[in-house]
């Protein structure tokens, strides 16, 4: 991987995107490992995730160039073509998100939203707490159990997406000779060739 100096690097990821990224990763990890054992911590992490998702949805429209959804939204055919190019080791380098990375942003936001929504429903039924408690407490218990099953499914599905995300980061870093993890800390990447 390149150890480039700052004179051939450009700013790509702004501070809000980087804080969002690492905060979301931390909160998901906390929520995932606390599960049933530390419900208060699990709930705080979940509420923080909801706030982070809402922030990212807004920042996706009003943020800096590479933070905007319009910068990396690509049709499914473009995403599939890009993945084929990655497998063939002919993938084009992108300064911002590549098509697969952009698709992953949307997939993770959706999966985390569904995880959060089903978590709120479960919390309402099982703990009679949270913003959905009034509604959920009036429903039959089997609805609560279904919400819990869906919550666990979406949490595990999100974890699977995260593993694919990490594999994509490592593949792109290797193919293009750049450290994408470092870039998400510093906000800087090498200029386009």
Please summarize what this structure is.
The protein is mainly α and 193 residues long.
Distinct helical segment count: 8
Approximate shape: elongated
Instruction: Write the element-wise H/E pattern from the N-terminal end onward.
Output: EHHHHHHHHE
Instruction: List segments where confidence is low: pLDDT < 50 over at least 5 consecutive residues.
Output: 1-5
Using the CA coordinates, give the radius of gyration: 19 Å
What strand order characterises the main sheet? 1-2
Number of strands: 2
In terms of DSSP E residues, the strand content is under 5%
Overview of this structure, please?
The chain is mainly alpha-helical and 193 residues long. The chain is 70% helix and 3% strand. It has eight helices and two strands, in the order E-H-H-H-H-H-H-H-H-E. It has a two-stranded antiparallel sheet. The longest helix has 36 residues, at 141-176. The model is unreliable at 1-5 (pLDDT under 50).
Summary tags:
193 residues, mainly alpha, 2 strands, 70% helix, disordered N terminus
Helix and strand arrangement:
Layout: E1 9-11, H1 15-34, H2 39-62, H3 69-72, H4 76-87, H5 99-126, H6 133-136, H7 141-176, H8 180-186, E2 188-190
Antiparallel strand pairs: 1-2
Helix pairs in contact: 1-2, 2-5, 5-7
